Amino acid sequence: MVRPIDMISRSGDAGLHISPQAKALKLELVSVSPSEAIIKLPYRLELVGEPDSGILAGGAVTTLLDHVCGQAVWAALDEFMSIVTLDLRIDYTRPAKPGLDLFAHAHCYKLTRSVAFVRAAAYETDRSDPVSTAQAAFMLTRLQIQPTPDQIRAAVSR
Amino acid sequence: MSDEPGLTPADILQAIPYARFLGVRAEFAGDEVTLVLPYSEHLIGNPTVPAIHGGVLGALMEMTAIAQLSMAQSADGKGGARRPRPIDITVEYLRSARPVDTFARAQLRRVGRRIANVSVEAWQDARAAPVATLHGHFKVFSESE
User: Fold this and answer.
1) Which homologous superfamily is A4-156 in?
2) Phi, psi dihedral angles at A17 (to 5 degrees)
């Protein structure tokens, strides 16, 4: 049976291109492994939150973290399920350095039948020196019917 | 770092590249600001539902908190020193945000000399049925700093 993580690995971009907002932010999949994902947010002047300093907007980092958390859940599942964010807590530990791409790593550290718990961090170069850290919970709902490989391919190639 | 004196919160918002990227605009009623996020296809996170990206909702509410805080500070005559910055936020998702316009308004629960505690609600069709809420602490800067 095709697992969600296989779909991520095969599509090569965590299905990022089927999410218009991920596409608009030009998010790139860096790596994915069971229960973990790393995504890159390329630095762009368009995403700056403080025009004078060139620091990326907190909101862009929020979306990066939300997205990478979802991908980590996806990478942890054995079957396709509906994933809905319950809450997302973000600590902005320091401003992002202007001009540098941001990376975000997420780990789905606990999965129950109905809830997934995820921790994530955003950083420029060093995961132990994060710009911000996040903690999120997702509600999982079993699908009545698993998508067929053809449907998965169609969704990914859209 | 300082914003030019005489700039309105609407000007400040318009000067933020990321606000233009999302397409956010501000509407004012007295001392209250409502941020409006007109629906646009690029805001969608999950096209199969379809739903606006959760991160975008967080971003909208964070900007609302900052806009309302800036406004309160300029009303107090101590604004404009530096823009408030988020310290930590918690976003709770209550409903799927459909592909329609979204609004957000902030309530300043406590504004101290250094830290402000703010709650924000985002809604679509009905204010009484919010799609998401945000609670957070923001660093505020007074003139003396």
Assistant:
1) Hotdog Thioesterase (3.10.129.10)
2) -75, -10
Number of domains in chain B: 1
Which contiguous run of DSSP H or E holds residue A59? helix A58-76
pLDDT digits (tens, 9 = 90+) for B2-19: 444 556 667 778 889 999
Domain that holds residue B74: 9-139
Which candidate, A135, A86, A64, A90, places its Cα nearest to that of B92?
A86
> How many other C-beta atoms lie within 10 A of the C-beta of residue A149?
12
Contact assessment for residue A49 and residue A58, using Cβ atoms and an 8 Å cutoff: yes
CB contact under 8 A, B53 and A64: no
- The complex's ipTM works out to 0.89
Chain B residues inside the 8 Å CB shell of A67: 45, 53, 55
* Strand partners of residue B105: B34, B121
Single pTM value for the model: 0.90
pLDDT, one tens digit per residue, over A116-140 is 999 999 999 999 999 999 999 999 9
Q: How many CB atoms lie within 10 A of CB A158?
A: 10
A137 touches chain B (CB under 8 A): no
In tens, the pLDDT along A19-42 reads 899 999 999 999 999 999 999 999
Q: Give the distance from residue A58's alpha carbon to the nearest chain B alpha carbon, in angstroms.
A: 7
Maximum Cα interatomic distance, chain A, rounded to a whole number of Å:
52
The DSSP H or E segment spanning B55 is: helix B54-75
State the residue for tokens 């170069």.
A125
